[in-house]
TrEMBL record:
One function term, GO molecular function aspect: iron ion binding
Keyword Oxidoreductase belongs to the record: yes
InterPro entries given in the database record: Phytyl_CoA_dOase-like
Keywords per UniProt: Dioxygenase, Oxidoreductase
Gene3D superfamilies xref list: q2cbj1_9rhob like domain
Organism: Sorangium cellulosum (Polyangium cellulosum)
SUPFAM superfamilies: Clavaminate synthase-like
Xref: Pfam families: PhyH
Protein name per its UniProtKB record: Phytanoyl-CoA dioxygenase
Cofactor(s) needed by this chain: Fe(2+)
């Protein structure tokens, strides 16, 4: 973590988060940290580092979300996986997830015990990817006893807007879920 990130003043980002539904922290990871997590991402996808129970999902060959393969898991070395989950099993990713800045943010917003639901790598292969339809990460779709209160996203690579990166609908959190199902 960059030294200045450890003492980052959270007043502005927390106010933005409350008003807009998201906040930009700016760069908080060192070049070495980024390189390590990029390399570990490749190592996981290529099977050079393995952990029981990791979740893997390839993009749909058709490029259509409706055609995504489910339940196949690891299908051999490939940097074309669209999603890896349970990254908290990996010590490098876990160390980043548990960093002091993220803990300060979480404790500023969440009272009582804090747990992680998903530690996910979203990957877009150079050959393209599957567009993800608009959705909300909450609701009965997820089968949780409560909706997630906070998501923290770290970009390991540049994510230009025209590259199909995540889009956020500013302020949409203020109206709650569009449907009870969420998803």
């Amino acid at each position: 973590m960059l030294p200045e990130a450890r003492a980052l003043d959270l007043a502005g980002p927390l106010a933005d988060y409350a008003a807009r539904g998201y906040a930009r922290l700016g760069r908080v990871m060192t070049d070495a940290g980024l390189a390590a997590l990029r390399a570990r991402s490749d190592d996981l996808m290529l099977g050079r580092v393995t952990y029981p129970g990791l979740f893997f999902q390839h993009d749909a060959a058709s490029g259509r979300y409706e055609d995504l393969p489910y339940g196949k898991g690891y299908e051999g070395p490939s940097t074309s996986y669209r999603k890896l989950e349970k990254l908290e099993k990996d010590p490098l990713f876990l160390a980043w997830i548990e960093n002091p800045l993220f803990e300060r943010i979480a404790r500023s917003l969440i009272q009582g015990e804090i747990s992680i639901y998903r530690a996910v790598l979203f990957n877009k292969a150079a050959s393209g990817g599957t567009p993800l339809p608009w959705h909300q990460d909450g609701g009965s779709y997820w089968g949780l006893d409560r909706d997630p209160e906070l998501q923290i996203w770290t970009a390991l690579d540049d994510a230009p807007a025209d590259g199909g990166c995540v889009e956020v609908l500013e302020g949409s959190h203020l109206g709650g879920l569009a449907t009870p199902l969420g998803g």
